[in-house]
Amino acid sequence: MTTANKYHSASWAANQFSGRVVFCTGGSGSICSVQVGALISLGADACILGRSGAALAAAAARLGALRTAARVLTVQADVRDAAALARAADECVATLGRIDFVICGAAGNFLASVGSGALSTNAFKAVVDIDLLGSYNTVRACLPQLVANGGRIVFVSATLHYTGSPLQAHVSAAKAGVDALSAVLAVELGPKGVTSNVIAPGPIAGTEGVARLVPVSTVEAARRSVPLQRFGEPYEIADATVFLFSEAGSFVNGAVLVVDGGSWHRQGTAGQYPEMVLDGAVVEGVKGAKEKESKL
């Protein structure tokens, strides 16, 4: 695979996003930072949001080096706080002048089952609040700018809710809500010149999602379960983002663009089914594994 850099393929016209600004939640994350990097490489400036100031600063340093005179604003904020998101949007406009593109990428996930008691009410709520309510707060904060500039929205979702994925009730519910939200926004905001679409990544190499959901002992089996026989690369999610924000994607509205190598059609489980749900075992070999009894 030939790429212009690790942020996007060589398919795109240089400087096509010159003068545009992207507002991205979860902007220091392993997927979202690459999405933002692709847009910066192609001329955009960016405002990235997250809860960790150190992670944001590190990401901004990398992203700002992608293009001469690129501007990367960082805002430490929690997407569950609507007032904080409104202030962040105002700061973005005051500093960078506008908002054209919004990427709703802040998310939370871990493996936990309902039946074992590991998925508490608070844990379920936390993920729904970050993924779904956070996405709504983001769009609402940026809406005046999106309408004024004929903007584009991309939600980073998932494919987990297409099937009954064990240990993923919280994320499945949240992402199903995100997909529904995007569909409604496509209809409501389309007459105002704003498009709303979803990108649903599959297993992407080197990302937080794979580290949290795929046990180390099953990585090779997971790779082989993908019809294309490989995990995706972060730049392939960025390429989908560039398409939706480019002139080539100007008539795409209300779509769910699955970028997973066909893997959801063979979507499996993180362990041996049904034993994994009957015995309530904790899945080992994943980042941030939940204890049997949730403390959230």
SSE arrangement:
Layout lengths: L2 E3 L2 E2 L11 E5 L6 H10 L3 E6 L2 H12 L7 E5 L5 H15 L4 E4 L16 H29 L2 E5 L12 H21 L5 E7 L6 H6 L5 H7 L8 H12 L10 E4 L15 H4 L18
Parallel strand pairs: 3-4, 3-6, 4-5, 6-7, 7-8, 8-9
Antiparallel strand pairs: 1-2
Helix pairs in contact: 1-8, 3-4, 4-5
Account of the protein in words:
This protein has 296 residues and is of the alpha/beta class. The chain has a single domain (14-278), classed as 3-Layer(aba) Sandwich (Rossmann fold). The protein has 9 helices and 9 strands. The protein has helices at 32-41, 53-64, 82-96, 121-149, 169-189, 208-213, 219-225, 234-245, 275-278; strands at residues 3-5, 8-9, 21-25, 45-50, 72-76, 101-104, 152-156, 195-201, 256-259. Helix 1 packs across helix 8. The radius of gyration is 19 Å and the shape is globular. 46% of the residues are buried. The mean pLDDT is 92.
